[in-house]
Amino acid sequence: MTTNSTDDATGTDAPTEATTDTADVDSALVTARRQLERAATHADVDSGVVERLKHPTRVQRVSVPLERDDGTVEVFTGYRSQHDDVRGPYKGGLRYHPHVNAEECIGLSMWMTWKCAVMDLPFGGGKGGIAVDPKALSADEIERLTRRFAEELRDIVGPTRDVPAPDMGTDAQTMAWFMDAYSMQQGETIPGVVTGKPPVIGGSFGREEAPGRSTAIITREAVDHYGRDLSETTVAIQGFGSVGANAARLLEDWGATVVSVSDVNGAIYDPDGLDVQSIPTHDEEPEAVLEQDAPETLSNDEILELDVDVLIPAAIGNVLTADNADDVGADLVVEGANGPTTFAADAIFEERGVPVIPDILANAGGVTVSYFEWLQDINRRQWTLEEVNDELESKMLDAWNDVRSEVESKDLSWRDAAYVVALSRIAEAKAVRGLWP
Ligand SMILES: NC(=O)C1=CN([C@@H]2O[C@H](COP(=O)(O)OP(=O)(O)OC[C@H]3O[C@@H](n4cnc5c(N)ncnc54)[C@H](OP(=O)(O)O)[C@@H]3O)[C@@H](O)[C@H]2O)C=CC1
Ligand SMILES: O=C(O)CCC(=O)C(=O)O
Predict the structure, then answer these.
(1) pTM of this prediction?
(2) What is the band of 10 on the pLDDT scale with cuts at 50, 70, 90?
(3) Are residues 222 and 146 in the same domain?
(4) Sorted alphabetically, which PANTHER family does this protein's record hold (predicted)?
(5) Looking at the structure, do residues 115 and 51 belong to the same domain, yes or no?
(6) ipTM of this predicted structure
(7) For the residues 21-34, what does the mean pLDDT come to?
């Protein structure tokens, strides 16, 4: 038996999001709302629009039954939060992680709305997932779970409604199963229902690396903005998955010295620089980082406090908190993960003069290449990897320049500036459409 229900947007059935176990951190929703309220004071946006944007349009909560390989049945809970679609279909990833809950999905879907607007993509914000540890399931079990999840979400997704994509714990194969299940239900092949698929079924070249590539591009621009040379820059990166590993490999290619990387079990550190190309990514082999040769190992807390030029948290949320923000040794933080910095930590970084380049700009390459994939699916045409990367570079530089000009002209933090760019575009779209409330 499955249960579908549409929760009130603010409803929550679990106390925390996918975070460290630090006790005093806020949920993604609380942080997203505080960030919105703060940034709105710098934007010329109607207060009613701001109030509306604190709430999602809807949150679908579904039960996802799974027959385990041993024949027993377990029922997992899945969610899809659809925050705002004034600029286009809801867009955002599906996360498989034990801490997934309604409140986390709402906060993450709000960040997707701003992210798509900062990048000037014709999408709104969505996010979802299943509260499950994918490492505890076999590949066959993940396939059955994903197919059932696609069936449960069938009525609310689609290429012009809501287009999921990979996030933590999901990948191109997950998207292929989702797309196949949806297409079978609809009776025709519909590649554009999800992005982040393998290229052979309508996926885009370069999507897997894209959030790491954009994080590297924005790091490069930020380092240059602050008058530094990338070849004299040391970098520490928490998380060695789609975002962290790809950012590490590119930054190393471009001359930076990556001194420390981590996975769920901890970090390796070499002050002279690691050979990051040889370290298997989460996708290639999960939990492999600590098996590599390196002079030192560190905990996932210690990597955040290393004396480096740039820190890139690229794993989970709420790792930079009021408890450790004073001890962060980096001169610049670039958010590869979604929501790694709490509201309180942001204030401490601002006071200390440590710039934080926000997630909604830095890791936006993922959704940007998802947009390219959606275009390729509609047009039934595949772009080359070079075309994708050239377009991505150009979209990232446009967004960087839009945000930088707000930073410089209004003396804002990078996060406030990115929000101002996003909010202005969203408010203008609402005004022109006459959508109210
Ligand atoms: N994938 C995408 O398209 C995008 C993802 N993001 C965000 O980036 C972040 C990472 O996502 P993604 O790279 O896709 O995830 P992946 O699942 O590809 O990789 C996650 C990495 O983080 C490590 N990790 C997991 N839990 C912890 C922990 N508690 N402490 C330290 N490291 C941990 C994993 O270790 P191990 O290998 O040992 O499991 C793995 O190396 C998330 O916040 C996600 O929302 C943002 C934009 C786009
Ligand atoms: O590619 C997408 O649609 C969304 C990626 C995502 O979930 C994110 O940027 O956080």
Answers:
(1) 0.94
(2) very low
(3) no
(4) GLUTAMATE DEHYDROGENASE (PTHR11606), GLUTAMATE DEHYDROGENASE 1, MITOCHONDRIAL (PTHR11606:SF13)
(5) yes
(6) 0.99
(7) 80
Domain that holds residue 295: 210-357
Predicted confidence (pLDDT) per residue in 56-93, tens digit:
999 999 999 999 999 999 999 999 999 999 999 999 99
User: Higher-confidence residue: 18 or 294?
Assistant: 294
| Residue 116 forms part of a structural domain | yes
Distances in Å between the Cα of 412 and the Cα atoms of 22, 76, 272 are 29, 43, 35
Ligand 2, pocket-test mutation among 80, 91, 207, most atoms within 8 A of CB? 91
Shared domain check, 267 and 158: no
The model's confidence at residue 104, banded by pLDDT at 50, 70 and 90, is: very high
CB distance 7 to 59 below 8 Å: yes
Tally of CA atoms within 13 A in the half-sphere of 374 that contains its CB: 25
Q: How far is the CA of 188 from the centre of ligand 2 (A)?
A: 25
63 domain-assigned: yes
Q: Are residue 229 and residue 293 in the same domain, yes or no? A: yes
- Top mutation candidate among 132, 265, 282, 290 for ligand 1, by most atoms within 8 Å of CB: 282
Total tally of structural domains belonging to the chain: 2
Reported as a single tens digit per residue, the pLDDT across 36-54 is 999 999 999 999 999 999 9
Q: Confirm whether 430 is domain-assigned.
A: no
Question: Tell me, what CATH number does 109's domain have?
Answer: 3.40.50.10860
Q: Give the range among 383-387, 411-415, 430-434 with minimum mean pLDDT.
A: 430-434
Q: Is residue 151 part of a domain?
A: yes
Q: How far is the CA of 95 from the centre of ligand 2 (A)?
A: 10
In a shared domain, residues 218 and 95: no
219 CA to middle of ligand 1, Å?
Answer: 18
User: What is the secondary structure of 261-284 as a DSSP string?
Assistant: EEETTEEEE-TT---GGGSPPTTT
Task: Give the domain CATH number at 303.
Answer: 3.40.50.720
Interval 10-19 mean pLDDT: 35
| Pocket residues: Cβ below 6 A from ligand 1 | 93, 166-169, 211, 238-244, 262-264, 282, 286-287, 300, 314-316, 336-338, 363, 366
Residue 89 in contact with ligand 2 by CB distance below 6 A: no
Residue-wise DSSP of 217-233: HHHHHHHHHTT--GGG-
